[in-house]
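ARCHIVE CARD
CATEGORY: sequence design from structure
SOURCE FIELD: tokenized fold
FIELD CONTENT:
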């Protein structure tokens, strides 16, 4: 933030015990939140006796929600000289640490938009308390935990040409008719000013000379500018709700601005911006596309997001879409590898790697065993083993069935048998209710030719299933799935017995 030329900002800040907070439509703002004070300094020559009287009347008005109280300036009075220049000092009671100007510098576009949405939703309360014609600039609105608060002034309209030339960005927030000399301002002009603030969430305004800035403002071009959104990452610029609200805002502040603003309620504009803000959440946008069946578009969006924001959660959701919806396990594994590199301490990627490789082995390697290079198979084996051992100990049991299945598919039957035995026992206790792992255990005995041991484990599994069916202590879907697995195992055992297989 830069102060108006010639204003002794450092001196004023020291004497007020405050810090510079930005340019308002009238004057400049300083804040001292430790003393719950904001100060507005207006060059004394800009105000007449009637305006100074109106400021004193503001001190007597009842307090209203979302409007900062105007309070006496204290022992130094309401007029003070700094470095030989006299200023009218308007003192507000507020402990706010930030203004809307500060919010607009936030690197997160969604937070910038959220702050403007809050101001738009609060505007009707300002109008109810103070009337129309407020013409607020971002520094005139401070942000508190309870919501935006206006630093009020009487409805004075447009400041002098001297003030506009001093800080020409003030003209950017003025509807063209006001720049051209009209003195009356109403709700439409207030909506225009807030729409200009909203545009600043998406792009910075071009800097220019005072004369050119005023000319552009008078011609409805100061804020409308080019059709760009330079403060947004590339992927956001392609989102439909964002493109739509940008078109709405540029139309609102372009030619015929006052007429369109008069037809636009602040709440309507807030709703449109809220939809744009939601589209700035890549996870929400990806889930919406996924819910509508646009799986390819969801993954394309993830790729675009990851160029600017390589985040763990985006990688995880993209991997899940590639795995479950697009049946592309290689893409899923690539995304999961990137997730592990970003945050090796989180367990989600390891669990998903085990799941993807398990499905991959079943669906693809079984068909293409001879065509796939052995090194690729070894790499997958290393990946799944590493993923399992990097899981927190408390979560490994949840994935023991997948790991046992992997070892079986690898042909490592002895290892799978020992692994299943380890994870089915807690000391001397057999955890018979781990039905998926019990079936893995029985299968390893069957594949090792140890039919009697396989039958013992199968019988224990059947007894356990009967028990949980009777007392309804397990999800019926899981019981049904385990029952199907047991039936398949019993068919294999029966076939071996008929063939006179090993005992």
């Amino acid at each position: 933030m830069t102060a108006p030329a010639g204003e002794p900002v450092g001196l004023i800040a020291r004497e007020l015990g405050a810090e510079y907070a930005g340019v308002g439509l009238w004057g400049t703002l300083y804040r001292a939140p430790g003393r719950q004070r904001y100060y507005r300094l207006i060059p004394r020559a800009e105000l007449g006796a009637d305006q100074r009287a109106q400021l004193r009347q503001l001190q007597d008005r009842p307090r209203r929600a979302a409007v900062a109280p105007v309070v006496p300036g204290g022992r130094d009075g309401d007029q003070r000289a700094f470095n030989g220049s006299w200023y009218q000092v308007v003192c507000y009671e507020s402990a706010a640490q930030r203004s809307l100007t500060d919010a607009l510098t936030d690197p997160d576009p969604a937070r910038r938009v959220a702050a403007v949405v809050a101001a738009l939703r609060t505007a009707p309360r300002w109008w109810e308390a103070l009337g129309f014609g407020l013409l607020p600039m971002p520094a005139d609105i401070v942000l508190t935990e309870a919501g935006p608060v206006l630093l009020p002034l009487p409805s004075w309209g447009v400041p002098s040409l001297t003030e506009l030339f001093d800080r020409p960005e003030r003209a950017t927030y003025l509807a063209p008719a006001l720049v051209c000399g009209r003195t009356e301002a109403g709700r439409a002009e207030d909506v225009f000013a807030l729409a200009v603030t909203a545009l600043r969430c998406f792009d910075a305004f071009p800097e220019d000379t005072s004369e050119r800035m005023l000319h552009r403002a008078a011609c409805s071009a100061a804020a409308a500018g080019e059709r760009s959104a330079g403060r947004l990452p590339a992927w956001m610029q392609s989102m439909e709700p964002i493109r739509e609200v940008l078109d709405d805002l540029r139309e609102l502040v372009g030619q015929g601005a006052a007429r369109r603003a008069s037809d636009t309620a602040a709440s309507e504009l807030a709703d449109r911006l809220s939809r744009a803000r939601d589209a700035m959440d890549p996870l929400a946008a990806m889930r919406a596309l996924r819910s509508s069946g646009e799986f390819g578009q969801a993954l394309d969006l993830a790729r675009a997001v990851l160029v600017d924001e390589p985040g763990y959660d985006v990688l995880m959701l993209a991997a899940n879409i590639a795995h479950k919806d697009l049946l592309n396990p290689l893409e899923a594994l690539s995304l999961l590898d990137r997730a592990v590199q970003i945050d090796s301490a989180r367990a989600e990627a390891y669990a998903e790697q085990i799941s993807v490789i398990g499905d991959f082995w079943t669906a693809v390697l079984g068909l293409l065993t001879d065509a796939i290079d052995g090194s690729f198979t070894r790499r997958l084996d290393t990946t799944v083993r590493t993923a399992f051992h990097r899981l927190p100990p408390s979560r490994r049991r949840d994935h023991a069935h997948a790991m046992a299945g992997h070892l079986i598919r690898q042909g490592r039957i002895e290892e799978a048998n020992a692994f299943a035995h380890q994870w089915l026992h807690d000391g001397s206790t057999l955890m018979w209710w781990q039905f998926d792992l019990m079936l893995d255990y029985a299968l390893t005995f069957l594949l090792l030719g140890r039919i009697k041991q396989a039958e013992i484990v199968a019988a224990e599994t059947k007894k356990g299933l009967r028990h949980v069916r009777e007392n309804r202590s397990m999800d019926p879907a899981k019981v049904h799935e385990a029952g199907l697995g047991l039936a398949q195992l019993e068919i294999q055992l029966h076939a071996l017995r008929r063939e006179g297989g090993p005992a």
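CARD ANNOTATION: The first strand starts at residue 19 and ends at 23. The chain has a mean pLDDT of 87.
SHELF: design records, drawer C
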